[in-house]
Write a structure and sequence with these properties.
Largest sheet: 3 strands, antiparallel
Order of helices and strands: HHHHHHEEHEEHHHE
Length: 253
């Protein structure tokens, strides 16, 4: 068997359990071939469990180390990594947790995993110079209704339907452990990076709708029609102050 074929057969065994490589492995009475292969298979799973523990530390803290290792080990077996970078591995975990857990914690743990993934994405997002509120001072008042905004790439919006953020603060800020997982009415959250610090806050329904519209390219005049001029101006000031906006443009008439 050529080296490339040997490597492929070994990979297929580690990722899919295919036995073809076993005939190429020498064993002895103390360490037969299947034991030696098992060491590599175990090490592969253990390393990815470790990687996901670093990506999802709050999920690990909330579940406990033993339960986390058991659950994530099962996830790794069902979802072998397809990525060259370990950082890219784990996007499917929130959905998998929702499908494989039971009771109120299924939604909560899945929400917590989505929240942590958003935090990681924001932390790793590309840098972009943000505009200060003073950048609006030179805009011709006649152009304001046609003003559009480009938002920072280090920004994530997500909906949560549980007390997952309370578990996040428990894990990351040494707050008291929540008594239990609870379903909640829909919550809208913003996660972003400002001055190298990842920040997050809950959004009102009004701001969530306005932010989504502005990110989709709605003009400032449209925002004023949906809210009021005063409300839209206040939100715009808050977005600039938080470092969410990196560019403005004036749409064609």
């Amino acid at each position: 068997m050529k080296l490339a074929q040997l490597q492929q057969a070994f990979q297929h065994h580690i990722l899919r359990g295919q036995p073809d490589i076993a005939a190429q492995i020498e064993g002895d009475a103390q360490n037969p071939a299947h034991v030696r292969l098992g060491i590599y298979s175990f090490a592969y799973t253990a390393r990815l469990v470790e990687v996901l523990g670093e990506t999802f530390p709050a999920v690990k803290a909330a579940l406990g180390e033993a339960a986390f290792a058991r659950l994530i080990g099962a996830f790794v077996q069902q979802h072998p990594s397809r990525f060259s970078s370990a950082r890219d591995y784990g996007a499917d975990l929130p959905q998998w947790l929702a499908a494989n857990l039971r009771g109120p914690r299924a939604q909560g743990v899945a929400d917590l995993a989505r929240f942590e993934w958003a935090v990681a994405d924001v932390f790793d997002a590309a840098d972009a110079a943000v505009l200060p509120p003073a950048a609006l001072a030179g805009v011709d008042p006649r152009q304001w209704p046609r003003l559009t905004f480009t938002f920072s790439p280090a920004l994530q919006r997500l909906g949560i339907n549980s007390n997952a953020v309370a578990w996040w603060t428990f894990a990351c800020a040494a707050r008291p452990r929540p008594g239990r997982w609870r379903a909640t009415p829909p919550q809208q959250w913003l996660v972003w990076r400002q001055d190298l610090v990842v920040r997050y806050r809950r959004l009102s329904r009004m701001e969530a709708h306005a932010l989504d519209a502005a990110r989709a390219g709605s003009r400032f005049g449209v925002l004023c029609e949906r809210l009021s001029a005063a409300q839209a101006a206040r939100l715009l000031h808050d977005w600039f102050s938080a470092g969410l906006i990196v560019a403005t443009d004036v749409a064609a008439s």
